[in-house]
Amino acid sequence: MDFNPADRIQDLQYFGEFGGVNPSISDSSTYTFLSAKTMFDTFEGNAEGCYLYSRHSTPSNLYLGEALAAMEGTETANVAATGMGAITPVLLQLCKQGDHVVSSRTIYGGTYAFLKNFTPRLGIETSFVDITKLDVVEAAITEDTKVLYCESVSNPLLEVADIKGLAALAKKYNLKLVVDNTFSPLNISPAKLGADYVIHSLTKFINGSSDTMGGVVCGDLEFINTLRNVNDGASMLLGAAMDSLRASSILKNLRTLHIRVKQHSKNALYLAQKFENDGLKTVYPGLQSHPSHDLFKSMMNEEYGYGGMLTVDAGTLDKANTLMELMQEKNLGYLAVSLGFYKTLFSAPGSSTSSEIPEEEQKEMGLSDGLIRFSIGLDNNIERTYEMMVSCMKQVGVL
Ligand SMILES: *Cc1c(COP(=O)(O)O)cnc(C)c1O
């Protein structure tokens, strides 16, 4: 059988301390040892199954991590308090002073700011490239390059990375391929396509209720243990640990991810096709017109569709803002950043989530002022939603 991420989550079995159908929540920051020797061994990383201190690991966090590792098909995983709390330790663990990163130029604003403004202070330089052009990526690799970094579906332009092609480059030059899969959980399984480490912001689709933050890195046991090492592990030492209570609530939401992703995808495809037919400049990987439609298709786990994210160009920032305000007034969604909520969320990335990217560079990468990013919700009646959206668009002169 083909790899199916949701079946792998389904196949996990947990019991709580008293036979509960959910695992018990570990409500402790620290853990007792029966012997002083075991405590020493645990610090040295040699006591399997012993808990030390909750910044290192907790039973609840390990349950969530194992479920996410099953989903991505990696050996194990480490959860963090936020997506950035997963991304920054991975990059800092893989790179030291003098090292170089080749990154997609269309990535999450926070990741971009970290690589552009923060890591140069530590002597780590990054070349930002058009990730859809493998020859350009290869040309940017230097003797000092350690990491290839991209998002499977990029934020906010929905460019699709050729993960197999990038993995081949990573192998050729002995680099680590790190893929942020936040926009396409279940849709794409990067580790199965050759990525070394797969990262998610759990804040988005995976948790899906916009009530908490979280992050994860999925990978091999050796690297994940390195991140957690008490002496030099970036996750352990930078300290963005997830709280056990949150880990348990995210695990419960993870169980409905497949149903939600299918509905997000179905609704987004419906709207994208309609908008495009109406003559709107629409970007959605499920559209034939998307430059990477075939590539996405070749990588996807078919039944989960093309994801819940699409963009529409409203022409100008003014029109985009007026339209978003009107759609919110009509309760079609919320003018908010983030994604993966039951309700549609929309924002103009040029002036919000991607504002870290200088205007010049925004232009160069095709991020126009009037671009609206939609995270399409779980609407039961998407035809009705469409009719209402079109009426808003006509009212503000976008259509
Ligand atoms: C939101 C997001 C992040 C950052 O995650 P936080 O949970 O906000 O720290 C990283 N990458 C992508 C693609 C995102 O959408």
Got a strand count? 12
Order of helices and strands: HHHEHEHEHEHEEEHHHHEHEHEEHEH
Percentage of residues assigned to helices:
25-40%
| Domains (count) | 2
Under CATH, the topology of the largest domain can be stated as: Aspartate Aminotransferase, domain 2
Keywords: Lyase, Pyridoxal phosphate
Family: Belongs to the trans-sulfuration enzymes family.
Organism: Croceibacter atlanticus (strain ATCC BAA-628 / JCM 21780 / CIP 108009 / IAM 15332 / KCTC 12090 / HTCC2559)
Cofactor: pyridoxal 5'-phosphate
Can you walk me through this structure?
Belongs to the trans-sulfuration enzymes family. Keywords: Lyase, Pyridoxal phosphate. GO terms for molecular function: carbon-sulfur lyase activity; pyridoxal phosphate binding. The protein is an alpha/beta fold and 399 residues long. The protein folds into 2 domains: 5-254, Aspartate Aminotransferase, domain 2, CATH 3.40.640; 258-396, Aspartate Aminotransferase, domain 1, CATH 3.90.1150. Helix content is 38%, strand content 14%. It contains 15 helices and 12 strands. It has helices at 5-10, 36-43, 59-72, 84-94, 109-118, 134-140, 163-172, 221-228, 234-238, 244-254, 257-277, 293-299, 317-329, 359-365, 382-395; strands at residues 76-80, 100-104, 125-129, 145-151, 176-180, 197-201, 215-219, 282-283, 309-313, 334-335, 345-347, 371-375. The strands form 2 sheets. A 7-stranded mixed sheet has the order 1-7-6-5-4-2-3, with helices on both faces. Strands 8-9-12-11-10 form a 5-stranded mixed sheet, covered by helices on one side. It is globular, with a radius of gyration of 21 Å. 49% of the residues are buried. The structure holds pyridoxal-5'-phosphate. The site of pyridoxal-5'-phosphate has 16 residues, from helix 5.
